[in-house]
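Shift notes (night). Ran Calmodulin while the centrifuge was going.
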Amino acid sequence: MGKDLNQIEEAILAKIQERAHSRTTEETFLVKALRYQDLSSCGWLDFPKFSRALLPYTSGVSEKDVEAIFERYADQGSLPIRPFASDFVSGVRREEQEAPEPMYQEPDLSEETLENIKVVYDQGPRGTTSLAAVVRRIRQLIARKGIRTAVDIVQHFYSADEDVDDQLDMYEFRQACRKAGLTFRDAEEVSIFEACAETKGKIHLPTFLKLLHGEMSSARRSLVERAFAAVGGNPQDDQSVVSPGKLKEHFMAQAHPLVVRGELEPGYVLAEFLDTFSQLAHVLGGCENGMVSWADFHAYYDVVSSTVENDALFDLIVQRVWDVKTKAWADGDVSPRRLVREVDDAPSPTAEKRPPPHSGPSVYTMDSPRGPQEHHRRFGRGPQASAITKSSIVFADIVNTLQEVFQRLSRSISLRGLRGWLTVVQRFQHFDYRRNGTVMRLDWQRLCRGLGLGLSSEDQEQIFKELSKKKKGQAMDYVECLRILRGDSLPEERAQAVDHLFQALGTDHVAPAELKRRFDASNAPQCLLRRKDPRQAEQEFFDAVDFFSQGAPFDVEKFDEFFRMVSAVHEDDDEFRLMTTSAFNVQ
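Came back to this:
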């Protein structure tokens, strides 16, 4: 129990360290949080107030465990605030619990076990410090602040190297950490120095930064190599270089996923790339003779990779901003369905075509036209007169084709995600009183009005007439309507992706439970790009699977039909690729 409680305390402390400001210590931060509940200013808390104070940091921790922590530090049912904060942050009580028992109480321990206990005891707190956990915590902290902070931290550590020997002693290391806003406990510092030491008492700076940023996976490295090749470089040749101007020319800020979604401006993304790339090259001494080599490009994306934890998002960002071609459109210049917001080349409103110049009579002219006034009301208005402007300009009525109406309806449904498709089908079935796949005219109009599908009365009538021909104009075939909205088939690349996913999830059929089990909402495009809550996205997907499966496994035809709706929701090729690969952990 003591070991489990120690792990819980470490997890709570990690959350406190994440929230603590860089200019304050964890102890001070914790004291302030506890004093907020000390309304009488007595310096002591009972358990209910203690539990409320730690509520933001004890998510997932049972009340029983919180009470056990309280009992560990409390004195007769009351907990002193400042002594608790000091002991909790330093880990004194945890170390006491983890200290080995006296040898006379453990007569059955082997010599090897006793030796291991002695080693841990001699090491002190660092013996129970996980270096991987420390690095992961710091990496997540940096990732939340972005690439600019990550590059600034590299500069802070190199600036602290006053001897310019790529080594830092403890004083220099702590100075760099203070400027970078990073905090380590004594045991964590000892672990870092032992892992990155080149000489006694000093850490090798490149080794530490490599540990901090981590290694890129083979898939990420391969993608970065393809990106460097896309700008004209050769990652296999150490002498291959590209100019900074060419790098800037090929960087497509307007294709960045967050720019496409309107969350960032293209100018901001481009400036961030240019600033951070040049800053890192200056710090590391790269870009010799003003040219960018593969080593410079790789070093930059080592840092970028450490700030993007999700593999799918990293793949999407690099593939888009460097226009890395995929197999489906390798012969073209750009993906045919890629959503790119062209900002610089946007057409000017004044460049649009204007109506023809007015040549007839007008209410704004004071002079009477020559000749007889044939536009007089006695003779009736001629064909060139408009009832709105009293001029010769006639506004033509825009008549939507049936195909355009169906496309607009499909887009309106898809904007609401899979829940939009689920709701439409449910409403159709609700109004199908005869259970024969049809709805009456008034029910169709009521459905459009209730769901706000954005169809005019003329559009609704156009669809109803087309789909009620087989019923002699009495009822509309909504099954045929749904088939038209989904489409008969997917494009070749998407069909192959769906087939590959089907084969990965099953052979002859896919059980709904298996489809839901394999779905990882955190890797889905709606969460990566649109900041949707993963729990909400997961529930929406689960509801759609349960409804459209009707309790039976998905065969090939039903699976393809389901993913035609998914394809309509994710119009962009890259998004659909994520939805059929990363979202289900399928390569």
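The two ends are 41 Å apart (CA to CA). Confidence is low (pLDDT under 50) at residues 98-107, 327-351, 372-399.
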